Known about the structure:
Elements: E1 16-17, E2 20-21, H1 30-33, E3 42-46, E4 50-51, E5 56-65, H2 66-72, E6 81-90, E7 94-101, E8 119-122, E9 139-143, E10 147-152, E11 157-161, E12 166-175, E13 185-186, E14 188-194, E15 202-203, E16 205-210, E17 215-216, E18 224-231, E19 237-245, E20 250-258, E21 271-275, E22 284-292, E23 297-304, H3 314-325, E24 337-339, E25 346-347, E26 350-356, E27 362-364
Parallel strand pairs: 11-15, 24-25
Antiparallel strand pairs: 1-2, 3-14, 4-13, 5-8, 5-12, 6-10, 6-11, 6-14, 7-9, 7-12, 16-26, 17-24, 18-23, 18-27, 19-22, 19-26, 20-21, 20-23
Amino acid sequence: MKRLALIIVALSSLPFVAGCPEEPEPNPTPQEELEAPPAGEGFQFGTGEQPVKAGDEVQNCYFFKVSDLLEKGGLDPTKPLNLNHVQVFQTDGSHHMNIFRVRTVGEGEDALIPEQGPYKNVNGQGPCFKSPNWADWPLVANTQIDGTLDWQFPEGVANVLQPDEWIMLQSHYVNATTQDTPDGAGEVIINFWHLPDDKVEHEMGTLFATKQTIRVCQSNPEPEFSGGCQFKNPEPVTVVAANGHFHSRGKKFEMYNWDGQSPDKPASSEMFYESSAWDEPEMAIDNKLSTIPANGGVFYTCDFQWTQPEEAVGCEGLNAFDQTKYMTPEDQLDCCYTFGPIVEKNEHCNIFVYYYPKSDDISCN
């Protein structure tokens, strides 16, 4: 899983002695890979070591209060964090790392309650695997590569987090057939850097959307699914970063400038993101990756190729999940990969978009 992501610093430093290189350790100590920001400029936080046994998928949710992190970094815990530089280090085996800002908190045994975290869940069981728990939680940062992401936002652009907010770090590791965690444990280390108030010119907005109606079936082995998200904004917005996410049946992911109205895929000249990698998909970062016109939006497509499920899952396993979660009894089961978090038996078609100025009104279909 060591690959280069588009326009991202994704190389881990290897120890070197004059004359000949040394053999690198399988997972270098994260602190050696990512030094914490100086006091008063930012802070470091992370997951600690996360055990990932052979055959397991582990998706854990960790919660942090912004004021506590500000204080840890020698910053004023009563003032907002103006996030304008993100660094993330992940050990090998990560499927994804997302950070969300907490909004609606549910109730009951499936709720993700910040004060009661972290939530450490395995193989689809537990509230950290259930996406409705964070359905209205805005994206802060994400990466899908092993190694280091180092992303400096454009000058004067900051994602503003209030001190009384909570953020949730979600870490997904896989140690199964399609992906593996070679050392049987994962870890994520993150640096957030603060921009002084007087240097903030634009507030960054983020967009995270999922296409939950996807079905990749034996009788329809090469489907394409599409969606659109409209920024209901009277002025254009500038996209500065984007990436897509699907599982191993995913073959091509595309994003386009969109007028916000047409049901048709835009012309190829409007495409600003394309990826064919599923395990470590490219993230495009550019100070002006795309300019979305006023009241326009982003159109995205996901192309899939059905494959025979792993022996441990089988069509019976896919059908059992399908019948329980999506189908009515009279529907014919068709060995379909449907929306869900498990790499071995579900699929995704998710978009991550970072832009400015922030829009408070976005609708997706």
